[in-house]
Design a protein that fits this description.
With 265 residues, this protein is α+β, with helices and mostly antiparallel strands. It is 24% helix and 14% strand. Bound molecules: zinc ion (ZN) (6 copies).
């Protein structure tokens, strides 16, 4: 426990404690490098009392915050590299000591003592400047403070990397980007961009869980395999150029038999 044996009177007013004042006066004189006339201390001027108060306060602070005294005279400021005087208040941060006026944001120069600050490559930053250095999420525009997902050459919050159509999360799953580099889940991409079947008008896309699908192209049109059949009798047509294949007539998809029937009328 620190010694704080002074009476409340002493604390309130130094003039009520003459003995104490005398000793302190000498200390003040030494500090200021002044010499008094012989004959001992005379009455104190108001300025001297103020100096004294200040000195006492500093002493008390030193007792209350012993770490302030840890500043060795040889230690220098981490910013200006000038020595830190013992009596000078200093900031201990980032494993170094700084003059209070030297402990400033690396970017905007505002003083950081007593403030929240962030360390970036060993330099202190104020909160605002630190946030400015962070990459922004391509979806929500907010800085990414925690985990970052990088995809399509851009940065995202993991929860913000979603399908632009259905907004399902795409982290850890397959996705496809469109011409504008916007991510889509696989089903939505195909729904939007896959060629459509000229018979049923549905997109021709892989079944769920499958990578590929067969698209039949005939007469400059697209068909699902299952939709590629004779327009007249509904017979499924082979994609091979054989007897079971397509025998088109006037742009119609027909089997060989129905082709012949139409051709005769
Ligand atoms: Zn400094
Ligand atoms: Zn700043
Ligand atoms: Zn975001
Ligand atoms: Zn989707
Ligand atoms: Zn179809
Ligand atoms: Zn037919």
């Amino acid at each position: 426990m620190l010694s704080r044996g002074r009476s409340p009177e002493c604390r309130r007013s130094s003039t009520q404690c003459p003995r104490r004042l005398k000793t302190k006066t000498r200390a003040a004189q030494r500090q200021a490098g002044r010499v008094r006339s012989p004959g001992g201390p005379g009455p104190l001027t108001l300025k001297e009392v103020e100096e004294l108060e200040h000195l006492t306060q500093q002493l008390m602070q030193d007792m209350e915050h012993p770490q302030r005294q840890n500043v060795a005279v040889s230690e220098s400021c981490g910013r200006c590299h000038q020595p830190l005087a013992r009596a000078q208040p200093a900031v201990r941060a980032l494993g170094q000591l700084f003059h209070i006026t030297c402990f400033t944001c690396h970017r905007c120069e505002q003083q950081l003592q007593g403030q929240q600050f962030y360390s970036l490559e060993g330099a202190p930053y104020c909160e605002g400047c630190y946030t400015d250095t962070l990459e922004k999420c391509n979806t929500c525009g907010q800085p990414i403070t925690d985990r970052m997902l990088r995809a399509t050459g851009k940065a995202y919050h993991p929860q913000c990397f979603t399908c632009v159509v259905c907004a399902c999360p795409l982290e850890g799953t397959s996705f496809i980007v469109d011409q504008a580099n916007r991510p889509h889940c696989v089903p939505d991409y195909h729904k939007q961009y896959a060629p459509r079947c000229s018979v049923c008008a549905e997109p021709i896309m892989p079944e769920p869980g499958r990578e590929e699908t067969v698209r039949v192209v005939a007469l400059d049109k697209n068909f699902h395999m299952k939709c590629y059949k004779c327009e007249d009798c509904g017979k499924a047509l082979s994609i091979e150029a054989d007897d079971n294949g397509c025998f088109p007539l006037d742009g119609h998809v027909l089997c060989r038999k129905c082709h012949s029937a139409r051709a005769q009328t």
